[in-house]
Amino acid sequence: MRPGHLPTRYTAGYAFYREGLDQAAGRLAAYVNRSGSDVLDEPATARARSGYLLRGLDCGAVDADEVAELTGLGRAELDRLAGRLAAATDTAAATVAGTTGGTGAPVGADK
Predict the structure, then answer these.
(1) What phi, psi does 67 have (nearest 5°)?
(2) Which Pfam families match (predicted)?
(3) Roughly what angle, to the nearest 10 degrees, separates helices 43-59 and 6-33?
(4) I need a surface site. Which of 3, 23, 70, 85 has the fewest CB within 10 A?
(5) Residue 37: what pLDDT?
(6) Which tens digit of pLDDT belongs to each residue from 69-94?
(7) Domain total for the chain?
(8) Does residue 108 belong to any structural domain of this protein?
(9) What is the pLDDT of residue 106?
(10) Is residue 103 included in any domain, yes or no?
(11) 98: left (phi over 0), alpha (psi -120 to 50) or beta
């Protein structure tokens, strides 16, 4: 990829998450709230929708407050629905403990 491609790549990715935000958030909220919807979703679909929203959050296309307003869910709930609970917990624990790779070794101990 050439540097000139980066702006269009970024724009395309950003637009992808912006355009699908309302539908993904609406269907996920309906699933979580067990409310009526035009589509009957199952757990795998909720996992995919929450993953979509998380990727949108991670790339900066959507805002956490915006997702929370549309779904009623925070980052932790989205992580859980997406099946990312263990990874999120491990990362948070490593950050708090100041360790790397789950080894328990302090950061920089190998130097």
Answers:
(1) -65, -45
(2) DUF6986
(3) 140
(4) 3
(5) 63
(6) 999 999 999 999 999 865 545 555 54
(7) 1
(8) no
(9) 46
(10) no
(11) left
**Surface-to-core class of residue 88, CB atoms within 10 Å of its CB (0-12 exposed, 13-18 middle, 19+ buried):** middle
pLDDT of residue 56 exceeding 80, the answer is yes
Give the number of residues written for the chain: 111
User: Is the per-residue pLDDT at 96 higher than 70?
Assistant: no
Q: Does a structural domain hold residue 95?
A: no
d(Cα 105, Cα 100) in Å, to the nearest integer? 7
pTM listed for this prediction: 0.71
The DSSP letter of residue 82 is T
Q: How many CB atoms lie within 10 A of CB 18?
A: 12
Of residues 56 and 34, more confidently modeled: 56
Helix axes 64-71, 43-59, angle to 10 degrees: 150
Higher pLDDT, 43 or 102: 43
In a domain, 92, yes or no: no
